[in-house]
Amino acid sequence: MKTLKKNILLSVVVILSMSFSACEIVEVDVVQDPNRPTSQSVLNDATPGQIQDLLTGLENKNRDIIDLRSGAYSLMGVFGRELYYFNSSDPNFITAWIQLPGSVNAEDNSSFFVDASMYEEPYQAVQLANLTLGAVANTNQLTEEAKSAASGFAKTIKAFQLLIPLHGQYQNGIRTEIPFEDPFQPGPFRSYDEALSDIRAILDDGAADLGAAGSTFPFVLTDGFDGFETPADLLEWNRAIAARVAIYAEDWGAAITATDESFMQLTEGESSMNLGVYHTFNGGNDILNPYFFTPTADENDLLVVHPSMLDDAETNDQRVANKFFQRAEAATNPDFTGPAIAYQHATFASATDDFPMIRNEELILIRAEALAQRNQGTDLTNAVDAINIVRNSWGLGNFISLDQDAIIDQVLFERRYSLWGEGHRWVDARRYDRLNQIPTNVDGGRIPTQIARPQGEIDWDEFTGN
Q1: Are 420 and 438 in contact (CB under 8 A)?
Q2: Is 283 buried (19+), middle (13-18) or exposed (0-12) by CB count in 10 A?
Q3: C-beta separation of 322 from 340 below 8 A
Q4: How far apart are CA 345 and CA 342, in angstroms?
């Protein structure tokens, strides 16, 4: 396990390394490796097959944030006390992530133990998106509609990935542009609000491209995009992510508009709740879903459910039954001083189950939140109706109140259970200035507001004088 000490500029060396096909220290014949193509080979009149390869690689890279040990969702889940990650081989997953007394402070110390998928890997995906966009712009072998299709897809992934480091860095801000052609001339750090604005602009550009892409998407995507095979379908996916970003920006009207333009369906039922776009795992030559655990799994490497999730749950909530499994013997960890934990992560039935990128259930709750916040005309009534679509889908009775504050409280409660383990609760509590409501009595730790800027970024700015 590695501590993240590299910055985004150094991390993209993995991608940029394919730009160099031979060493110039001695004169030798250049050998082109067909299994390691140069970036110039795709930046100069790429073939449709090369664009397909870039999009396949981009979709694969988009999935790298789904990782148990270095996972953004694992870390944010611990920060939000949705879960704990029991890893017996490295105490940092308990002491640092829970922020026990005496551990490295997440907010102030650039050596805080946070692995690649909260910063490094998202920027690698961003750079691959930038490479794809460059290749599309510089080819004459695609129709204009095909170019728009590929560009719209790449821009949507780019925006989705930029949200991950922004969640971690928060008021530190992030860089939103590192040009692929000149990564050592990155854009400046953008504040949280500026970065959100940039991400929304990227999504809007992607939406415009998908709107100009014709009726057929000319490339192959994984099964995670089943039901989203046309540019119009992918535009709805783009707008779904735009709705998510809009509530972060507190642009409630835009959030409502984006849900209208997305694939949202205001219908009850488990299949409706799970309609969406997913990261796929196939085993064999592919990887397995790292968030699948066999019942009563080995507690050396395990996600367990924070006890408050059981304590605060409503009776007969099917989300609890679907996501949490009571172990035959409660799990313990040598670095965890709290009680043994009775329940483990059980959202997935197999190691090849898909992990959601964004689902209809989230969109319905985004709409409910935005309606309640806008509070015009029948907005509160419509917000309650949306909440009850979710509740009724999981066997719960109707929520009944037209008080704005009560509705917002209920939306946050529903998001806590509907979106458990998907990286939302810490962000939601921070958005509403409720980090002090996240319970720490079980573990004796603290809840950080954000993660310190990586040391590599600090070193880079000192080196360049920025």
Answers
A1: no
A2: exposed
A3: no
A4: 11
Place of tokens 């014709």: 214
d(CA 46, CA 233): 26
Kindly state the tokens that stand for 252.
């409630």
The one-letter code for the residue type at 14 is: V
Q: Is the pTM of this model over 0.85?
A: yes
| 152 CB-near residues (< 8 Å, 6+ apart) | 206, 207, 208, 209, 210, 211, 213, 231, 234, 235, 238
pLDDT in tens, 140-190: 999 999 999 999 999 999 999 999 999 999 999 999 998 887 777 888 999
Hey, what are 86's tokens?
Answer: 């029991």
Residues written for the chain: 466
Tens digit of each residue's pLDDT (9 = 90 or more) over 313-364 = 999 999 999 999 999 999 999 999 999 999 999 999 999 999 999 999 999 9
HSE-CB at 113 with a 13 A cutoff on CA atoms is 17
| Number of Cβ within a 10 Å radius of residue 314 | 14
Tokens of 104: 């490295």
**Number of helical (H) and strand (E) elements in the chain, helices listed first:** 19, 8
